[in-house]
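Narrative summary of target 7.
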Amino acid sequence: MLTTDKYSSTRQAFLFWSNLAKEEQKQCFSGQSKNIIGQYIEQLLNIILQGLSITELDVQHDAEMEEDDDAKWTVMRAALYMLGEVSPLVGDAIFNQVMAFVSERIQKDDWLNQYVGMCALGASLKGPSSSLIYQHCAPLWNGIF
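Modeled conformation, tokenized:
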């Protein structure tokens, strides 16, 4: 089981990469991007998806640390934030993998996995093209409703 210190380090690592992605977005507008996020996107996406899978521990952690503001910034929330920041930088590149994760989570019976899947979908929508979003989401919505 992860300890509070490991949660803190994990959240800080997600925040570091999220801030780096924000800075890179600014650099893209000025034409000076070094594409750091793009160079490491495979590794970063694996870390993001792993972070999204820590939900049960986060729930317990939140219950134990309710009074501490940092405790509300869970690993799952930090991973979602990072996904939202890297998505615009990589466009369509990660959407297939994210959608595989989303589909897997949404099809599970428990609400927590479904919630994580829907949050991951929402966080990833800033980057991919609308045609790719439609291609993946239309069958998903048909399966849900």
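The radius of gyration is 16 Å.
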